[in-house]
Amino acid sequence: MILSNVTVSQWFLLTDAKSALNSPPKVFTPLFFSAELHVPTADDIGTPGRLAEWMANSEVTVTHLTPAMGQLLSAQATRQIPSLLNAFFVGDILTKRDCHRLQSLAANVSIINMYGTTETQRAVSYFAIPSVSSDSTFLATQKDVMPAGEGMVDVQLLVVNRNDRNIPCAVGEVGEIYVRSGGLAEGYLDAASSAEKFVANWFTSSGTKPPPTWKDTIRHPGGDRFPGPEATYWKGIRDRMYRTGDLGRYLSDGRVECTGRADDQVKIRGFRIELGEIDTHLSQHPYVRENVTLVRRDKNEEKVLISYFIPLDRRGAEEFVSELEEDEEEEGGLIKPFYAYRRLIKDIREHLKKKLPGYSIPSSEYFCVPSWPSSTLNIWPSVFVPLRRMPLNPNGKIDKPALPFPDTAEAASAPRVRTGRATPKLSRTEAAISAIWGDLLPSPPAVIPIDESFFDLGGHSILATRLIFELRKKFVVEAPLGLVFERPTIKELAKEIDTLRDPHFGLARDLTAKVPRAAGIANGAATPVISPEDYSADLDKLLHQLAPKYSFAKWTRPDGLVIFLTGVTGFLGAYILRELLIRPNHVAQVICLVRAKSAAEAMDRVRESGTNRGIWDEHWVSSGRLLAFRGDLSAAKYGLSDVEWNKLVETANVILHNGAMVSLVDLCHIFH
Questions:
Q1: Residue 232: what are its φ and ψ, rounded to 5°?
Q2: How far is CA 204 from its chain centroid?
Q3: Percent of the chain whose pLDDT exceeds 70
Q4: Which pLDDT belongs to residue 298?
Q5: DSSP states of 311-324 as a string?
Q6: pLDDT on residue 21
Q7: Any idea what the CATH number is for the domain that residue 626 is in?
Q8: What is the pLDDT of residue 218?
Q9: How many other C-beta atoms can be found within 10 angstroms of the C-beta atom of residue 128?
Q10: Hey, which residues does 246 pair with through a beta bridge?
């Protein structure tokens, strides 16, 4: 066992006295080794920085704690702990950051990550991390999560395929961890739960019977001896395993690495999401000290990812945290008002976007702020929750049920917090879209920013579809279904809606006004009044640009139509392109016009649009049935070269216009 090499003089038990008495193994282990047992007071634990000072004064040599308690120990610590030689971590996943923080306080500490459950002999495996003073490079060779390690004496960790438990997992393959040991609990009071969790080892050829080489020396001591009183309750030799519910994989050296919980895999809107994976990447942000991600339900009873975190106060963090006003000092050490952490949360979200798929990222921020003058916590609408400290249960683990619940009704009744800046003036279109967002988003902020994505604020594909229908109804425009994906902010949507109101002449009609207004008017500028004569003057200009005569179209391809298609990179355009090209007997070729820097980039944009929607076929390009020209619908001859323009005019039979705006004069030249 590990403890045989541990020098013990002062043993530090990081819990309160009442919890210590309720957990005999924590108490009797140090006493068995003739060590002094030191238990801190609640004030020592609850006051940032005091715990490390108390530990140094006590000259503790061994400590037994959870990762959450370890984070509490290192938070705002100002004292080194040179006496600390061994630290045993149990109860949760231990990260490289946790180890670095403890070793920065105690250069002589060896960290032992222990894995186990209450249903087994508490700790069943271990992984040792040498002290910085003996090996300063060891942690640099490890992954971000410390392994569970190897089994202790008479303990075996098995990683089993989740779909077929008869198949052991290969190295690197994630499966469920089973503990094979003689020191398992007998079971639960619930027989059904016992049968599910405590199972016979099905890998032995003899099934539930022990191999013949295993001698039952308790029931049959042999010789002239008779069974002792322990044989009365002896159930015989059994080969049992405990199903932990933890996920893990074998490393190349045979050790086992934990990757999360089987019940931490959740399904939201059809996507399978690993909460442990989110927490691992979130913990790697330089200004996050502690974090945990849960699934809660919003006001519409939809599942929402919520990440609670404690901001790390270190050099460089000030650029992400806004200053308080003079009359907004912190009260009782509670967290700053919610708006102070907007920039930090935005940076955290960008960090996660580089590590996780979009559906695994909490979509915006629930801000946790104190009510004034009471200390009741009110939750402001978003799904990143900055906390002052994590609630812990008596075992030293994060008390998840005690985490504040994001209640938007409670937030609405909370006092308005001044942001220190004026609310930006919105155009009528932007204000209308902002109101629609407020009705659709599950937890909209009090002031919806016009430059943040619909999806970063809690929207998803189903709500995006509803948003398009609301925009069509409100503004009486044919907004394409993919518009919100291409223009996800209020500012971009408003500009596009204004364009769609009158795509032919580039004028945006305000439906609440009797006169049209220019689309590009800046906020706050005077709206020009356009007379009917000025409005119709464009028609006279366009008529002079039309050719005096146009001939009928010619069928230049006997094998099918040549179609000129615009707006192909949008949602609707991508599906139109597919519908055309899957009909080789009718459509010979499709020529697309795409805004890009080069023809190659234009084709790449078309390819990306189709690939992202799962409808792309590379054969369209290799066979020559799809051409992509770089151009601009609003430019003369669409910005094409003379060669490209002539090819388009000579070969196109049909024009399918799916773009936002187009030059009608050039359109007539093509379709001659």
A1: -60, -40
A2: 41
A3: 71
A4: 63
A5: E---TTGGGGSPPP
A6: 41
A7: 3.40.50.720
A8: 84
A9: 15
A10: 261
Is the pLDDT reported for residue 409 higher than 50? no
Q: Please report which helix (H) or strand (E) contains residue 417, including its range.
A: none
Report if residue 556 sits inside a domain.
no
Residue-wise pLDDT tens digits, 530-540: 555 565 666 66
Residue 112 binned pLDDT confidence (cut-offs 50, 70, 90): very high
Determine the 3-state secondary structure of 290 from DSSP: strand
> Which tokens is 580 given?
């055309």
Q: What is the pLDDT of residue 111?
A: 94
User: Which is higher by pLDDT, 387 or 26?
Assistant: 387
Least Cα distance to 98 among 84, 108, 112 occurs for 112
- Pick 531 or 217 by higher pLDDT: 217
The strand pair at 36-38 and 62-65 is best described as: unpaired
Query: What is the separation of C-alpha 157 from the centre of its chain, rounded to a whole number of angstroms?
Result: 30
Closest CA to 304 of 290, 318, 293: 293
Give me the amino acid identity at 323: E
Q: Are 371 and 451 in contact (CB under 8 A)?
A: no
pLDDT tens for each residue of 164-180: 888 899 998 989 999 99
Q: Which of 336, 366, 143, 357 is nearest to 258 (CA)?
A: 143
CA–CA distance, 610 with 616 (Å, rounded to integer): 5
Asked if residue 21 is part of any domain, the answer here is yes
What does the alpha-carbon distance between residue 193 and residue 5 come to, in Å, rounded to a whole number?
38
Percent of the chain surpassing pLDDT 90: 11
Query: What residues contact 232, with CB distance under 8 A and at least 6 apart?
Result: none
Q: Do 139 and 167 belong together in one domain?
A: no
Final residue in a domain of this structure, among 120, 146, 172: 146
Helices (H), 283-418: 342-353, 408-413
- Whether the pLDDT of residue 276 is over 80: the answer is no
Tokens of 387: 């906390």
Spatial contact of 480 and 574, defined as CB atoms under 8 Å apart? no
Parallel, antiparallel or unpaired: strands 62-65 and 10-13: parallel
Parent domain of 604: 561-670
Helix (H) or strand (E) holding 379: strand 377-380
For the record, the structure tokens of 334 come out as: 């509670």
Q: Has residue 392 got a pLDDT over 60? A: yes
Q: What angle do CA 57, 62, 63 make, to 5 degrees?
A: 85
Q: Is the pLDDT of residue 384 over 50?
A: yes
The first and second tokens of residue 579, run together, are 């519908």
Q: Which CATH number does the domain housing residue 48 bear?
A: 3.40.50.12780
Distances (CA, A) of 525 to 348, 430, 519: 36, 15, 12
Under the phi-then-psi rule, with left for phi > 0, alpha for psi from -120 to 50, and beta for the rest, what region is 400?
A: alpha
When the pLDDT of each residue in the chain is averaged and rounded to a whole number, the result is: 75
Give the span between the Cα atoms of 522 and 534, in whole angstroms: 21
Residue 507, both tokens:
């004028």
> Tokens representing 44?
């020592």
